[in-house]
Design a protein that fits this description.
The protein has one helix at 3-19, and strands spanning 21-26, 33-37, 39-49, 55-66, 79-82, 85-94, 99-106. The protein is 16% helix and 51% strand. The chain starts with a helix and ends with a strand.
Length: 109
């Protein structure tokens, strides 16, 4: 981990109790539990370069988490509730520094 990564992680950890989001997590393989995520972005936009240098943009809800704050390892298909809305985990993007982005889709019942 670089010095910059250490500084940003310490800052995010210090601000997590103030700006973090309470999440109730429903893993496929275990009982539900609650934890505080780093941040929640209901309309996160990602832009990626596809084949032939074509930009592909997508908008999805994203939950930023510290993996050690979670009682279970996140899996695709798990569900969670944040801000009174239910979401399903579609993709997990670990950063390599102990945190990850959970790419979500809204579950409509």
């Amino acid at each position: 981990m670089t010095a910059w990564d250490t500084i940003t992680e310490r800052t995010a950890r210090a601000l997590q109790p103030v700006f973090g989001r309470s999440v109730t997590y429903y893993p496929i393989t275990a009982d539900p539990y609650t934890f505080v995520a780093i941040a929640f972005d209901e309309v996160f936009q990602s832009v990626e370069m596809a084949q032939a240098q074509v930009q592909v943009a997508s908008r999805n809800p994203v939950l930023d988490v510290y993996l050690d704050d979670m009682s279970t390892e996140p899996e695709e298909g798990d569900e969670l509730v944040v801000a009174s809305k239910r979401y399903q985990v579609d993709e997990i993007q670990p950063s390599g520094n102990g945190d990850a982005k959970l790419i979500l889709s809204r579950v409509v019942s």
